[in-house]
Amino acid sequence: MNQLMALPARLMSGWVVWTSAASRADERSARPRRKYWAALSAGVVLVSLSVVKMTAALAFTTPVAGSFGFDVYDIVVNQILGGPIGFVGGVALIVWGGSQVIKNWVITILAIIAGTIIIRARTLVTSLGATI
């Protein structure tokens, strides 16, 4: 009879030991999460400060005839991307992306966006510009 009375006390003491061990394990697993959140918050602060500190952005303008790099710009943007090669490549990319919709819809979206960018490259170069 005495052993039956001691059984709940033994079970209870084992449970307390088990829960304290579990809480220590939770505490150990929380440490990497704290480091992750500390690094993430530091990154957010750095990006925020750099955006606030930014003064002006220079954009790429279309070069005029006779200036440095006009021939390269003319061949790459006007004749290749803005010409029939770029148009056919953009349409082919859009059609290929549409055919991949069953396999992977992310590739489809990226292919359609890339095809549209290739087709509209001439206006995108001058409207968006390359931020320096």
List keywords for this structure.
132 residues; mainly alpha; 5 helices; flat
The arrangement of helices and strands along the chain is HHHHH
| Domain unit count | 2
Instruction: Give the overall form.
Output: flat
- The chain-level structural class is mainly alpha
- What is the arithmetic mean of pLDDT? 75
Q: Largest sheet at a glance?
A: none
Unreliably modeled segments: none
Helix proportion:
over 70%
The counted number of beta strands is 0
Number of helices: 5
Hey, roughly how much beta strand do the residues contain?
under 5%
Distance between the termini: 86 Å
Radius of gyration: 31 Å
3D architecture notes:
It is a single chain. The chain is mainly alpha-helical and 132 residues long. It has 2 domains: 1-55; 70-127. Helix content is 77%, strand content 0%. The protein is built from 5 helices and no strands. The chain has helices at residues 2-53, 70-81, 84-99, 105-119, 121-127. Helix 3 (84-99) packs antiparallel against helix 4 (105-119). The radius of gyration is 31 Å and the shape is flat. 7% of the residues are buried. The model has no long low-confidence stretch (mean pLDDT 75).
